[in-house]
Amino acid sequence: MIAVELLEKYGAIKKSFQKNDSIFEEGNLPTYYYQIISGEIKMCNYNDDGREFIQGIFYKEQSFGEPPLFLNQKYPANSIAVEDSQILLLPKSSFTKLLEENPVISIKIIENLAQRLYYKSVMAAEISTHEPEHRVLKLIDHGIAYFNFQKETNGYLINFTRQQIGDLTGLRVETVIRAIKALEKKGKLKIINRKVYR
């Protein structure tokens, strides 16, 4: 989102994380702005039974963890590498200076945060009031728009695993599998070689 050269000009450093490495933990105070160069990051919580709820998944050129950085509040979720990832870390004070000196970037950050807030509002309504098929389809359609899923000859390839769909919608994996099969029968999705297409 922010040009790598600009982040590096303000002192950002590149750091590599291996799959399942923690970037930050729930309850910690934020000290950096994070932007992904490569890989995939999830923000998640765990309930008392150890069940994971994914707050969001982030990909190349996306940032994550900004709200607590702006509010100087503790992180409400954990941040974990889903796969080997490379991330740019910019200290909080340098990030603030970058925004003050580059108002166009500030507007981009606001738009990005507004998009996420909109998504959370839509998904909160979906999770509380709609049936599994509707929830799954809404998440997939949001993924196409927001995560830039690639269009192939069979349609948009949905890069979420069944587990991730469950964790993002509050559904059990078995329910997600049934919902996807039902949506395939209705012609809303395609399943080809175990991959899901919209």
Question: Care to describe what's here?
Answer:
- The protein has helices at residues 4-9, 66-71, 92-101, 103-129, 132-146, 162-169, 173-185; strands spanning 13-17, 22-24, 32-38, 41-46, 52-58, 63-64, 78-81, 85-91, 151-152, 155-156, 190-192, 195-197.
- It is an alpha+beta fold and 198 residues long.
- The chain has two domains: 4-103, Jelly Rolls (Sandwich); 130-197, Winged helix-like DNA-binding domain superfamily/Winged helix DNA-binding domain (Arc Repressor Mutant, subunit A), CATH 1.10.10.
- The strands form four sheets. A four-stranded antiparallel sheet has the order 1-8-3-6. A four-stranded antiparallel sheet has the order 2-7-4-5.
- A hairpin with a 2-residue loop joins β11 (190-192) and β12.
- The two termini are 26 Å apart.
- The relative contact order is 0.14.
- The mean pLDDT is 91.
Helix/strand layout:
Blueprint lengths: L3 H6 L3 E5 L4 E3 L7 E7 L2 E6 L5 E7 L4 E2 L1 H6 L6 E4 L3 E7 H10 L1 H27 L2 H15 L4 E2 L2 E2 L5 H8 L3 H13 L4 E3 L2 E3 L1
Antiparallel strand pairs: 1-8, 2-7, 3-6, 3-8, 4-5, 4-7, 9-10, 11-12
Helix pairs in contact: 3-4, 4-5, 5-6, 5-7, 6-7
Mean pLDDT: 91
> What strand order characterises the main sheet?
1-8-3-6
Helix-strand pattern? HEEEEEEHEEHHHEEHHEE
Strand content: 25-35%
Counting DSSP E segments of at least 2 residues, the number of strands comes to 12
Taking all Cα atoms into account, the compactness measure Rg is 18 Å
The parts where pLDDT drops under 50 for at least 5 residues are: none
The CATH superfamily label of the largest domain reads Jelly Rolls
N-C termini distance: 26 Å
Shape: globular
The biggest beta sheet reads: 4 strands, antiparallel
- What assembly state would you assign to the polypeptide chains in this entry? single chain
Q: In percent, how helical is the residue content?
A: 40-55%
